[in-house]
Specification:
The protein has eleven helices and no strands. With 238 residues, the protein is mostly helical. It starts with 8 loop residues before the first helix and ends with a helix.
């Protein structure tokens, strides 16, 4: 029996980085002084992992005629993930209720066959990066929109980077540069250290000097940049 594991490694990088960002930002508040966060944090990350894996069977169930097997896998992942998330949900369901809008909109986009549309990909990244405030919440007991926006804005740049590589048009080159400028302005307004955005300087260089490279190379570069981003959170997050 083949288990339908998500093989979009970019998604796993974003998810893992979001979890680490939330964990590091949370640990900087010295949460061990007021709560035992380890069990709920571990269970929550495991639960989120199962929920991410529910995406593939859901997508297949929405577009193929033989739906039974895909629905069974979807329900298995969803129920297991939800069970693992119960300790977090008991404490934080009301706080994170607004994110249901992102879930519903993503399902709608999948159902109309727009899985690879840029809006679907941005929506998907916005869902993956929810892991940052969720993990932060399990560690500290508090919600941080600041960590959510920081991580989401940073990783959304990767969507435009891939589109730039595929399209190679002047329009997407301008969009990439404009996005990086807007990201910096948003970080400044939110009082988030602009040093976290240092890795995005490569995006600007890529837009100005559009060199030929394989998507695999682009993926490796984005992975290295995500590692730097997490390191910078550990150094510069306040």
């Amino acid at each position: 029996m083949k288990i339908p594991i998500v093989k979009e490694w970019g998604s796993w990088i974003v998810f893992s980085s979001s979890c680490l960002a939330g964990l590091i930002a949370g640990l900087l508040t010295q949460p061990w002084l007021k709560r035992d966060f380890t069990p709920i944090t571990v269970l929550t990350i495991l639960g989120l992992t199962f929920l991410i894996n529910s995406k593939n069977p859901l997508s297949l169930a929405l577009r193929v005629k033989e739906k039974k097997e895909h629905i069974m896998w979807f329900l298995s992942f969803m129920l297991t993930g939800t069970a693992l998330l119960l300790p977090f949900l008991i404490e934080g369901v009301k706080t994170f209720l607004p994110f249901v809008v992102l879930i519903l909109s993503y399902v709608v986009l999948l159902s109309i066959g727009e899985e690879h549309h840029i809006m679907s990909e941005l929506n998907g990244f916005a869902l993956l990066t929810i892991a940052a405030p969720i993990v932060y919440f399990t560690v500290t007991g508090d919600m941080s929109w600041k960590i959510y926006f920081a991580v989401t804005i940073y990783f959304a740049a990767g969507v435009f980077k891939v589109k730039l590589r595929l399209k190679k048009t002047f329009f997407f080159r301008c969009i990439m540069i404009l996005y990086c400028i807007i990201a910096a302005l948003f970080f400044y307004i939110m009082k988030i250290s602009l040093l976290l955005l240092i890795p995005l300087s490569e995006n600007i260089l890529a837009a100005i000097w559009l060199r030929d490279e394989r998507l695999r190379t682009t993926g490796n570069i984005e992975f290295i940049k995500s590692v730097l981003f997490i390191l910078f959170i550990g150094i510069f997050w306040r």
